[in-house]
Amino acid sequence: MAARSLRRFGTVLGPPRRGSLYFRGSPCVFSTAAQQRSTGDECGPEDPRDEPKHPLSDCALERKAIKLEEQVRDLTERYRKALADSENVRRRTQKFVEDAKLFGIQSFCRDLVEVADILEKTAESAAEEAEPSNPNPTLKKIYEGLSLIEAKLQSVFAKHGLQKMNPVGGKYDPYDHEIVCHVPAEGMQPGTIALVTQDGYKLHGRTIRHALVGVAVESQE
Hints:
single chain; 221 residues; alpha+beta; 3-stranded mixed sheet; 8 strands
């Protein structure tokens, strides 16, 4: 009965595998090479990549942190300088564009004020000829026409920022005036402008032609 049971158990287990020890009549099967290889793999030396790496020392980490902080400060300073330079360039470019818009007609204005001088002198001559004692109506009409043209021209000048100076009675300014003569100070303080021989003009506050003036000085007895 027992032998029959063992044979049935052996049938369940199947034929013995290669590399294993099988004892007839015993349910135990012993592994040889495969088990040794498995055991040898488990007990073998560990993978060197799995070994823990030596961490950096505290001093090395501190030095590295200090170096990084210095780099950050240096880059920040460079960024600030570049930003300031860029802003300065932008402001200068904007100022240049604005000046070009305002003073682009400066040369044209210099030539045009000479025409205004001729027109003013012509109007003055016509005014002298068109006195009430002179009954010539033609001269009177010419004078009136010249006066209208002169007024319109000055209006156009003012529209574009070109203004005539009126320095009589004011202080002498070398940036606006050019002295051509000295006159006795009769009822005027010395150093003030007594007369103007040629009008000066400013374009948006910038002098484009100096006024030719006579300055009052103390009379020497």
